[in-house]
Amino acid sequence: MFRDMLEEVVQSTPGGLGAVLMGYDGIAIDEYRLDSSGPDLQMLAIEYANVLKEMTRMTDVLDTGHLEEVTVKTEEFFFVLRSVNEEYFMVLTIARSGNPGKGRYLMLKRVPQLNEELS
Amino acid sequence: MFRDMLEEVVQSTPGGLGAVLMGYDGIAIDEYRLDSSGPDLQMLAIEYANVLKEMTRMTDVLDTGHLEEVTVKTEEFFFVLRSVNEEYFMVLTIARSGNPGKGRYLMLKRVPQLNEELS
User: Cβ separation of B68 and A71 shorter than 8 Å?
Assistant: First the structure.
């Protein structure tokens, strides 16, 4: 079920390359890759788990409200990171020619369902 | 000159609250705040300097190309972080009712000029 959801998000996002659902402890629940191109999803998500933990600590310190979403733009990719709940998050990898806005929307729409399944 | 540029970006972004130009070493060059609302810009930029350094290290490890921009969405704010060069970055704080897309565009447009002034 998680894999189907990840696949749907990747396939419906223009430029979508892969998505992973992962715990903040760095252990992945499931992933979907369009093909073998793009960065290693597991390695990427483990690195992002650390960054998100640091950012969550920071938003608490700065009192700016709960962290919901982070969009990262590099020379080659967009990465959309979406918090699902306090234990899990999703990362979507998109080509630079793709549409991160659509990816963000699709991930946001799936949060309530994911939350239900994960609790 | 930096303050005028920061003021222009904040004033031209719907929901813009403040902007700061800062070194990755955590030392600010200049800042502009619309009023005293919103989080402390210096404290925020120091925290984000650490996150950006960690993300730059990570994008190098993952070989995903140079880090250009990060957009953070919390319950209360958007934060747009834009790398200017290897030494400096900008942070723009926007209300959740604002337009981070416009802010991103305005910051991107000012990078070449900033680069020239800073080198």
Answer: no
Q: Which residues of B93-108 are buried (b: 16+ CB within 10 A; e: fewer)?
A: bbbeebebebbbebbe
pLDDT 10s digits, B98-108: 999 999 999 99
Nearest-CA distance B11 → chain A (Å): 21
Q: Does A42 lie at the interface with B, CB-CB under 8 angstroms?
A: no
> What value of ipTM does the predicted structure carry?
0.90
Taking the Cβ of residue A61 and every Cβ of chain B, the question of whether any pair is shorter than 8 Å is answered with: yes
From start to end of B1-119, where are the E strands? 16-23, 28-33, 67-74, 77-83, 88-95
pLDDT, one tens digit per residue, over B62-82 is: 888 889 999 999 999 999 999
pTM of the model: 0.91
